[in-house]
Amino acid sequence: MRELGKQLQQRRQAGLYRSRKVQDGMQGAEVVLDGKTCLAFCSNDYLGLSHHPKVIKALQQGAEQYGAGSGAAHLINGHSRAHHALEEALAEFSGRPRALLFSTGYMANLGVMSALLQRGDHVFEDRLNHASLIDAGLLSGARLSRYAHAHADNLQQKLQASKPGTRLVATDGVFSMDGDLAPLNELAQVCKQEEASLMVDDAHGIGVLGQHGRGTLEHFGLNMDDVPILMGTLGKALGTFGAFIAGSEDLIETLINQARSYIYTTAPPPAVAAATLVSLQLLKQESWRREKLQELIAQFRQGAAALGLELMPSPTPIQPLMIGDSQRALNCSEALLAKGIYIPAIRPPTVPEGSARLRISFNADHEPRHVEQLLDVLDAIV
After folding, report:
1. Residue 226 phi/psi, 5° resolution?
2. Which residue of the set 176, 261, 326, 333 is catalytic?
3. DSSP alpha helix (H) spans, the chain
4. In this predicted structure, what is the pLDDT of residue 110?
5. DSSP 181
6. Catalytic residue, candidates 52, 83, 236, 370
7. Domains, the chain
């Protein structure tokens, strides 16, 4: 414990120290952080649904009907009619027989791997997967192998070199720090050839990609036969809180009986489930939100190219601007904030050493004038 202060000081000197800002009010294009109004390009509320009047009203009515909390785990008496209705709606939305709610995407990923894997099994993961997938693989007891980012051939080589047995391949659909897409068509083909199961964490794809907002699987035209295990979150494009796993009847029943992060935790508030049902309806009905996002992304990328800014290749609302050095990325973030724009610096260990960046993300609350303002400030400081 005596070493903690020294370690924190070392983090400060390396430009890796993290601190929180306090936000007042709701998410939106403009937010109030530490008492200062600024234009924010960092939220995962991609469709702007977290503050939609209909979603807020559903949350209020849900609290009046069910109370503020669920009171118990799902398997005791915490599984409400609202939870059940949302699971049925998510199953229909994802085109699968069943869906199962989890409190967070982290717990969903932990739950899947703890339930399906054990010592002697193998799990293969993209090198840039989200920390929750990596941790889930490590904690499962299975042997974890990481293949080169978005490299199906490298995955196939590792699968062919592994011993027979249960083999699970897990990947992000949209990589949260790079904004690029996993080559799901190629990965699905390799998994079929090598008799492995494919799991996709589509936290940043659900609601954003695909003609109907069903995510990267819809974008690539894949079904449950191609990707047996789908994880999606509710706290990003859907604007509420929680996560779900969608798949076969047997998969969901296995998770209900064996996923420790599902069994041994209090169910999310039913009011949140009621609000999410409304978010899901809006996601399906208001396609203009996705269309507007694509227009903003195109405007930004064209403007950045004209300025010579080094953007990473991304078709999603996540638009990383590579900086490299951690302290320089932090300085750029602070300079942006001084100009009234908030974009946190993303630094190791969240991203590999030497790849610190400004992770710019857009949502449907932004307007073209906001993009122009961002480009003008970036031109001046980067």
Report:
1. -80, -40
2. 176
3. 4-13, 53-66, 81-94, 105-116, 131-139, 152-161, 184-194, 216-220, 249-258, 260-263, 270-285, 288-307, 326-338, 368-381
4. 98
5. B
6. 236
7. 15-47+287-381 (3.90.1150.10), 53-285 (3.40.640.10)
pLDDT at 6: 87
Q: Name the maximum alpha-carbon separation found in the chain.
A: 58
Strand partners, 145: 124
Amino acid at the residue 14: A
Terminal alpha carbon distance of the chain: 39
Report yes or no: 357 and 319 within 8 Å, Cβ to Cβ.
Answer: no
Residue 272 has which token pair? 């949140």
275 Cβ contact partners less than 8 Å away, ≥ 6 residues apart: 55, 56, 58, 59, 62, 240
Q: Determine how many CB atoms are found less than 10 A away from the CB of residue 369.
A: 9
> Can you give the pLDDT at residue 264?
97
CB 215 within 8 A of CB 228: no
Question: Catalytic residue at 333?
Answer: no
In the prediction, which pLDDT does 189 show? 98
Catalytic, 292? Answer: no
In the chain (382 residues long), the average pLDDT of successive 10-residue segments reads 86 84 90 92 97 98 97 96 98 98 98 95 97 96 96 97 91 96 98 97 98 97 98 98 98 98 97 98 97 97 94 95 91 94 92 91 97 95 86
Q: Rounded to an integer, what is the distance from CA 237 to the centroid of its chain?
A: 9
What's this model's pTM, rounded to 2 decimal places?
0.94
- C-alpha 315/C-alpha 159 separation (Å) is 29
- Which pLDDT does position 12 carry in this prediction? 86
What is the C-alpha to C-alpha distance for residues 263 and 95, in angstroms, rounded to an integer?
25
The dihedral sign for the CA sequence 122, 136, 106, 116: positive
Closest CA to 247 of 203, 191, 176, 198: 198
Q: Which of 74, 204, 219, 292 is catalytic?
A: 204
**Which among 216, 271, 285 is positioned nearest to 242, based on CA atoms?**
271
pLDDT of residue 201: 98
Q: Can you tell me the distance from the alpha carbon of 103 to that of 241, in angstroms, rounded to the nearest whole number?
A: 8
236 is an active site residue: yes
The SS3 call for residue 173 is coil
